[in-house]
Amino acid sequence: MALEAAEAAAIAHRLQPHTRDFLSCVGRSGGVVQMCWQGDRRWLETPHPETATATGQHVTLAEAEQMITILATEDRVAVDELGDVVTKPW
Fold first, then answer.
1. How far apart are CA 14 and CA 78, in angstroms?
2. Distance of alpha carbon 68 from alpha carbon 3, whole angstroms
3. High-pLDDT (> 90) share of the chain, %
4. What are phi and psi of 35, to 5 degrees?
5. Rounded (5°) CA angle 62-51-69
6. pLDDT one-digit tens code per residue, 36-53
7. Distance (Å, rounded) from C-alpha 49 to C-alpha 10?
8. Handedness of CA 54, 60, 63, 65 (dihedral sign)
9. Average model confidence (pLDDT) across the chain
10. Which residues pair with 88 in a beta bridge?
11. Where in the chain are the domains?
12. pTM for this model (two decimals)
């Protein structure tokens, strides 16, 4: 289902940690930003299938919205711009 940035951000607001909700957003050129709950913290990442890793960090709701908006409006993954990101194997 294709969503606008505001619609995807609204979904991010409704995600609940106790239900193990997650959100995956795919840009027009195939870039991915996904978010899930780890305990009571939001984890946001972009996967790298070619290396079986993902780069991300725990984020605030505002940071998650920003990453979703950049993907939707600029068609680019900006997770590295968050700062202290880590790369983890799957």
1. 22
2. 11
3. 59
4. -135, 140
5. 20
6. 888 888 999 999 999 999
7. 27
8. positive
9. 88
10. 54
11. 5-50+59-84
12. 0.84
DSSP the chain: ----HHHHHHHHHH--GGGT-EEEEE-TTS-EEEEEEETTEEEEEEEETTTTEEEEEEE-HHHHHHHHHHHHHH----GGGGSS-EEEE-
Tokens of 6: 């505001």
Instruction: Check: CB of residue 71 under 8 Å from CB of residue 33.
Output: yes
Residue 61 has pLDDT above 70, yes or no: yes
Distance CA 8, CA 51 (A): 27
Half-sphere exposure of 10 (CA within 13 A, CB side): 5
Cβ proximity of 36 and 21 under 8 Å? yes
Check: CB of residue 77 under 8 Å from CB of residue 27. yes
Per-residue model confidence (pLDDT) at position 10: 73
Given a cut of 90, whether residue 5 has pLDDT beyond it is no
